[in-house]
């Protein structure tokens, strides 16, 4: 049942090229550059009129939501607010029937996320679910569902469902942008072409980076703390890297926006602290280049204090190797889709460290696959 893999988690990490392909399949046309979302009782008119998108989710799905905010705001120019589902109801949200609700949930049964959805509906919003389980409660109560076709996820630590959520959010963002005419046909086509190349690129990472992460695990499996840094859309990916490591290896880990380090956490850095920095870039994108340059200065702030940097960078980045202890390479893609590539090394790193520490990676202590209590 584990298909020759030692753990479900590793099997599911390696299933990501297929999960991404299946989530894209049948939903895009490369001829017209259009995205088709079926199972939607929400019209293009609703999409055009939406004044805001409210997203609620928990855990890893919340990280996907936070990355999704970058995709939706960048492409469709609609303001997005992201809440922890467990907080949403209790902050007395302001009713706004022209806002669309978006719930992101692998299981579709998370009690906090369901409660947030019901709150949104009671305030007059239509809701859309991004869900991996057909017919799950949250999908049933939604006005529209974008199913992630990741297949059943057994490992408690979410991996392939997460990357499939990022892809579903990307499709949603492109669809919304088309309805609102904030991107041209050519732009739509170019974005979708990049998307279709993603599974092959993930395969490449799995081939090269898995062994490197296993080696890194030998060096770093005994540390007591880890830091993960990123900027822009890579910041939620840093949070996801930290969560993966915490939940399966029990090492304390924190994710931080790289630019915030100087406002406090720099005090933590010493020669014992490994710092994973997401330093990929899309050279064709001005914002991405700027982000990369700023990230390089953040790396120098860490190395100047003797912190040990493990960087995730794009292939062919020769500059970064001189600055850091280790580099894990991923192929090139556009800025928003780099988020899907740079999480893969973080999943593999967490996995190999946890295995070396003798942890039960598929069934971590104190955790359940789906959290059906509030
Ligand atoms: O099924 P959901 O996506 O709603 O679950 C949300 C979280 O409970 C889940 O992502 C959790 O954080 C995972 N253990 C992360 O690996």
Automatic annotation (TrEMBL):
GO terms for cellular component: cytosol
List of catalytic residues: 369 (for fru-6p isomerization activity)
Annotated organism of origin: Alloacidobacterium dinghuense
Complexes and interactors: Homodimer.
Reaction catalysis annotation: D-fructose 6-phosphate + L-glutamine = D-glucosamine 6-phosphate + L-glutamate
The SIS domain, residue ranges: 43-182, 216-364
MF-aspect GO terms: carbohydrate derivative binding; glutamine-fructose-6-phosphate transaminase (isomerizing) activity
Keywords for this protein: Aminotransferase, Cytoplasm, Glutamine amidotransferase, Repeat, Transferase
Name of this chain's protein: Glutamine--fructose-6-phosphate aminotransferase [isomerizing]
GO annotation terms (biological process): amino sugar biosynthetic process; carbohydrate metabolic process; fructose 6-phosphate metabolic process; protein N-linked glycosylation; UDP-N-acetylglucosamine metabolic process
């Amino acid at each position: 049942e584990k298909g020759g893999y030692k753990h479900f988690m590793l099997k599911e990490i390696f299933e990501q090229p297929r999960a991404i392909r299946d989530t894209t399949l049948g939903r895009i046309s490369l001829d017209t550059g259009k995205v088709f979302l079926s199972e939607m009782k929400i019209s293009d008119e609703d999409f055009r009129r939406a004044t805001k998108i409210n997203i609620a989710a928990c855990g890893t799905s919340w990280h996907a939501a936070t990355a999704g905010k970058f995709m939706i705001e960048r492409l469709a120019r609609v303001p997005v607010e992201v809440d922890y589902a467990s907080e949403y109801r209790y902050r007395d949200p302001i009713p706004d029937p022209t806002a669309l609700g978006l719930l992101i949930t692998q299981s579709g049964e998370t009690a906090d996320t369901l409660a947030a959805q019901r709150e949104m509906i009671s305030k007059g919003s239509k809701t859309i679910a991004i869900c991996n389980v057909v017919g799950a409660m949250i999908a049933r109560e939604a006005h529209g569902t974008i199913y992630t076709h990741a297949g059943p996820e057994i490992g408690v630590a979410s991996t392939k469902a997460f990357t499939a959520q990022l892809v579903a959010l990307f499709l949603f963002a492109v669809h919304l942008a088309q309805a609102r005419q904030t991107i041209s046909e050519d732009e739509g086509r170019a974005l979708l072409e990049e998307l279709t190349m993603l599974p092959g690129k993930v395969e490449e990472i799995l081939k090269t980076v898995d062994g490197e992460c296993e080696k890194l695990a030998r060096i770093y499996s005994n540390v007591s703390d880890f830091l993960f840094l990123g900027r822009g859309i890579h910041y939620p990916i840093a949070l996801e890297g930290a969560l993966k490591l915490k939940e399966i290896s029990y090492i304390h880990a924190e994710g931080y926006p790289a630019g915030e380090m100087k406002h406090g956490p720099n005090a933590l850095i010493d020669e014992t602290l490994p710092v994973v920095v997401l330093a990929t870039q899309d050279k064709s994108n001005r914002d991405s280049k700027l982000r990369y340059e700023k990230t390089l200065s953040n790396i120098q702030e860490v190395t100047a204090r003797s912190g040990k940097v493990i960087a995730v960078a794009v292939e062919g980045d020769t500059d970064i190797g001189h600055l850091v202890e280790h580099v894990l390479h991923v192929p090139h893609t556009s800025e928003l889709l780099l988020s899907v590539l740079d999480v893969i090394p973080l999943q593999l790193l967490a996995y190999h460290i946890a295995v070396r520490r003798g942890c039960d990676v598929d069934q971590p202590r104190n955790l359940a696959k789906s959290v059906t209590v509030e």
